[in-house]
Amino acid sequence: MNLVNKFVMITIALAEDYNPTLKRFLDYFTILEQDYKVVIQALNGHDLILKINNLQQLPDVILIDINMPTIDGMSATYYLKLHHPSIKLIGLSTYSDENSIKNMILSGADGFVMKALAESVLQDAIKSVLLNELYIDKRIEVDMQQINSVLIKRKERLLNENAFNLTKRERTFIMLNATLLSFEQIAEVMFVSPKTVQSHYDRISKKLNVHNRQAITFFSLQNGLATIANYS
Question: Are 123 and 29 contacting, i.e. CB atoms less than 8 angstroms apart?
Fold first, then answer.
């Protein structure tokens, strides 16, 4: 089925921690209700992932703010692309610097849009990613050679993910460990008990020869096993 066909309803998930902006996007899609349906409203990446886990069918497109508390947009994108590789994600940001764009794409995003007057490009962005095309806000000047280098690096990272002999569950723990989640919250996301999360931590510590959560986070960020937004 062609999701870009005007007769097909496109389902949207919104992840944005600033309520007025969340409402702004919700109002925008409400006006376009014949073409779009918002199925998730989330205030951070943790909230988004929990709500995604409770859906029977994934949304077609997720619009996700980069800088959010608890789990930021880059971390959530990285997680969602591991567990739902077919899902389309468009990063939203008040910033338009090339580093933010490159880091979001490296995390697995399919597009990037500036929040300011985003309504002027959102439909083009959504249609592009649903056609498996990378979309970068046309109002931003970027070096496409640099962007293509990031896409190559992303492919290389995917090929090297098994270099540390980690299971998918262990990779999931490593991603979530790099966020602000407690073990109890990580257990909630992974649908396991806190005791099982502790077991993952113990095994990973031995495999990677690191001895605390901070060291695992540092190792994972250095080796492309996790990512976090840069708030500087």
Answer: no
Residue 180 has pLDDT above 60, yes or no: yes
CA distance 31 to 226: 37
CATH architecture of 164-222: Orthogonal Bundle (1.10)
Judged by DSSP in three states, 22 sits in helix
All structural domains of the chain with their residue ranges: 10-159, 164-222
Q: How far is CA 40 from the centre of its chain?
A: 14
Strand order in the sheet with 61-65: 36-42, 10-15, 61-65, 88-93, 111-114, 135-136
CATH class of the domain comprising 10-159: alpha beta
pLDDT digit string, tens, across residues 29-41: 999 988 999 999 9
Nearest to 172 by CA among 95, 98, 82: 82
